[in-house]
Amino acid sequence: xxxxxxxxxxxxxxxxxxxxxxxxxxxxxxxxxxxxxxxxxxxxxxxxxxxxxxxxxxxxxxxxxxxxxxxxxxxxxxxxxxxxxxxxxxxxxxxxxxxxxxxxxxxxxxxxxxxxxxxxxxxxxxxxxxxxxxxxxxxxxxxxxxxxxxxxxxxxxxxxxxxxxxxxxxxxxxxxxxxxxxxxxxxxxxxxxxxxxxxxxxxxxxxxxxxxxxxxxxxxxxxxxxxxxxxxxxxxxxxxxxxxxxxxxxxxxxxxxxxxxxxxxxxxxxxxxxxxxxxxxxxxxxxxxxxxxxxxxxxxxxxxxxxxxx
Amino acid sequence: xxxxxxxxxxxxxxxxxxxxxxxxxxxxxxxxxxxxxxxxxxxxxxxxxxxxxxxxxxxxxxxxxxxxxxxxxxxxxxxxxxxxx
Lengths: 310, 85
Known about the structure:
heterodimer, A: two-stranded antiparallel sheet, B: mainly alpha
């Protein structure tokens, strides 16, 4: 068994959408014919159906919601589950609308544009670490303002029916995709991106391998394992780590928050422990984000169950 | 000491291969997967090791993929780069 096979066997979460192909197509057609707002209204009812009649949907958000809102049960928990399901549904509609109807549907504000440009100008590459928050695809689409190629570490399920913005447009992606299930987990491709002074984007809240590639940190009162490769790459190349969170700031409005810039000393080596302080800095920033926008953290996976990520 | 021998010593020490001695390592075995058992994070570290110990900055990762096939391949790559100045 090679490393890729082993990783797939270990992986117990799925990035696949919960909707079927025809459900996605129905929404795409509605957006084309009636616009984004009509699809938003439908999401309100579809989310209600899912939350009331599909316990598996509630179960996916329960690990996070029970830690973000401890002690809430019954109707309040149902309400939380509904709120987060509506939020992700409307974000997915907005994402599809941007691809189907084009720019002009939404405004994306980059509050940390100058900060980001400053990091890129250093010429050592930039590692953008984000989380399953808001709509990261809006952020990536908007990074053309950096005038530097952007690569994204992204694993796509083979049978995922949820289309990306560029796929709706029938265009090539505005960013290069590095597959973590590829040779050597895409590590050499990531290194090359940074050595060329380009931008690399990594999800900092999702472990893609076993214990050897992750480090344990405290998050929302429990212990989770997060990848340390962003900080290892930073140590290797001298690239700054910029923590960003794209989020929905209002109807039709999205913003990109530059939460923190993390500097990792050079030559920290291979042991996970060396990178724990930097992973903790990221997690503290993420805790700040979920404190402020609790219904925009879309990691529908039990991060706190250590067995699931092994 | 040959480049192969030097590499074996460095890998055992810098990659914390505590269960191995340099003499245990087959220079023709694959570095990753079923050979020496290195993983993607070790690949990043290998690039650092080559720079730190041999002064070679690997910019082209396609070259790295070829060089990282085995210790023998990596030694040949290093010697080639050093001889070409």
